[in-house]
């Protein structure tokens, strides 16, 4: 059975398993493995990223925001898109790109585990 891609499929496993609604900027940066400054920069560049801010200006990201950020990360860091190219790809077919980003991330983690097992043998 061929399932339709969903935004939930684009979440990192560590985020998808949590019942939390909001994730701080440091936690989000750690999950994605990028500096918090990159998150702030992408927020300015991509209008679809809208973290909630408290009175002090602290950013809190929803699971949707994290899925979008992960897709941007995939497009810019893995596929080598420019920011403009990533914006175009997100606008034309976000769910497909998000699902591809999730698949690549899962395969990368599997590869890392297999390499760990290989070292033990």
Textual characterization of the structure:
- This protein has 121 residues and is mostly helical.
- It has one domain (11-120): Multidrug-efflux Transporter Regulator, Chain: A, Domain 2 (Orthogonal Bundle).
- It is 63% helix and 6% strand.
- It contains 5 helices and 3 strands, in the order H-E-H-H-E-E-H-H.
- The protein has helices at residues 13-16, 25-32, 36-45, 63-78, 83-120, and strands at 23-24, 52-53, 59-61.
- The protein has a 3-stranded antiparallel beta sheet with strand order 1-3-2.
- Helix 4 (63-78) crosses helix 5 (83-120).
- It starts with 12 loop residues before the first helix and ends with a helix.
- Mean pLDDT is 85; it is low at 1-6.
Largest sheet features: 3 strands, antiparallel
- Which residues form runs of ≥5 with pLDDT under 50? 1-6
Taking the alpha carbons of the first and last residues, their distance comes to 37 Å
Strand order of the largest sheet: 1-3-2
- CATH architecture verdict: Orthogonal Bundle
Q: Say what oligomer this is.
A: single chain
Provide the helix percentage: 55-70%
- Could you please say which CATH topology applies here? Multidrug-efflux Transporter Regulator, Chain: A, Domain 2
Beta percentage is: 5-15%
Shape verdict: globular
The CATH top-level class label: Mainly Alpha
The mean pLDDT is: 85
Number of strands: 3
Q: Rg from C-alpha positions?
A: 15 Å
The H-and-E topology, N to C, reads as: HEHHEEHH
Number of separate structural domains: 1
- How large is the count of helical segments? 5
Output the structural class.
mainly alpha
């Amino acid at each position: 059975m061929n399932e339709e891609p969903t935004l939930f499929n684009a979440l990192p496993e560590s985020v998808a398993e949590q019942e939390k609604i909001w994730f701080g900027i440091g936690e989000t940066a750690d999950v994605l493995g990028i500096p918090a400054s990159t998150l702030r920069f992408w927020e300015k560049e991509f209008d679809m990223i809208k973290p909630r801010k408290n009175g002090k200006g602290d950013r809190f990201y929803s699971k949707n925001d994290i899925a979008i950020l992960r897709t941007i990360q995939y497009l810019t860091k893995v596929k080598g898109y420019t920011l403009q190219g990533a914006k175009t790809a997100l606008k034309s077919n976000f769910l497909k790109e998000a699902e591809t980003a999730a698949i690549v991330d899962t395969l990368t983690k599997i590869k890392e585990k297999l390499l760990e097992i290989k070292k033990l043998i």
